[in-house]
Specification:
This protein is an alpha/beta fold. About 40% of the residues lie in helices and about 10% in strands. A hairpin with an 8-residue loop joins strand 1 and strand 2 (about 25).
Length: about 240
């Protein structure tokens, strides 16, 4: 989310869920591996919460979600990711344009907005750009509403970083709720799946194992919980 000098930056990533096979490219016309005929393809778009800042690549929720789906008999390919720490909705939009990705995907997840909140951007702007990103996600899913899955914004205020930030923590939580009210409303109005991981993100106040070593981002344990919450909707849609 917030820009912190952590090394992992992913503009257009072929994420193999293994650290030693991580690849990064900034090509405007990325070359993607040809997938098997019946393989389920997965695109994850967002910010630091999507790339799994401060955890091993296989610890992020896209890889953990892929593992759960495979364990349930679904042939899911390597997740493709367009995400970067610090991105707002507008920056994600711009990155998607620059990626020039023309492939269609069976599954698309979208989690974006924490940096809009952190920077104090207006909720009106967020609503407009989030609605546009929903349409972008639908485009990647070839118009299939059953293939798009939105994840709510976690609450960073209760993390060690948040508690030491000097911010008014109740106000942060209230603001996060307001941004989530927007993304939930817009998601459901389009008939798309919405997974609310925010209440669980607030358990960091009592369980520090949910926080990565940077004191801000989720640990692999929290990402696993997100994946577990997301999985039933995907399994229902894909089987």
């Amino acid at each position: 989310m917030i820009k912190i000098p952590i090394l992992i930056l992913a503009l257009m990533v072929l994420l193999a869920c293994q650290k030693d096979s991580f690849k990064m490219t900034t090509n405007t016309s990325p070359t993607l591996n040809t997938k098997p005929k019946n393989e389920i393809s997965y695109l994850a778009i967002g910010d630091s919460y999507t790339i799994g800042e401060a955890v091993p690549l296989q610890g992020g929720f896209p890889c953990q979600l892929t593992t759960i789906l495979k364990d349930n008999g679904l042939d899911v390919g390597t997740p493709h990711i367009i995400a970067k720490t610090g991105w707002t909705t507008s920056e994600l939009q711009e990155a998607i344009k620059k990626a020039n990705l023309n492939e269609k995907f069976t599954v698309v997840t979208l989690l974006i907005g924490v940096n809009n909140q952190y920077r104090g951007e207006s909720k009106e702007r967020y609503r407009k750009e989030f609605k546009e990103l929903l349409q972008t996600a639908l485009g990647f899913a070839n118009g299939n509403k059953a293939g798009v899955f939105v994840v709510s914004i976690p609450d960073w205020g209760l993390t060690p970083y948040g508690l030491e930030s000097g911010r008014d923590i109740p106000s942060v939580s209230s603001d996060i709720d307001a941004f989530n009210a927007i993304n939930k409303e817009e998601t459901l109005s389009q008939g798309l799946s919405y997974t609310d991981i925010t209440p669980g993100s607030r358990l960091v106040a009592s369980d520090r194992e949910l926080i990565a070593s940077d004191g801000l981002h989720p640990s692999a344990k929290m990402y696993q919980e997100w994946a577990v919450q997301l999985a039933p909707a995907l399994i229902k849609a894909l089987k």
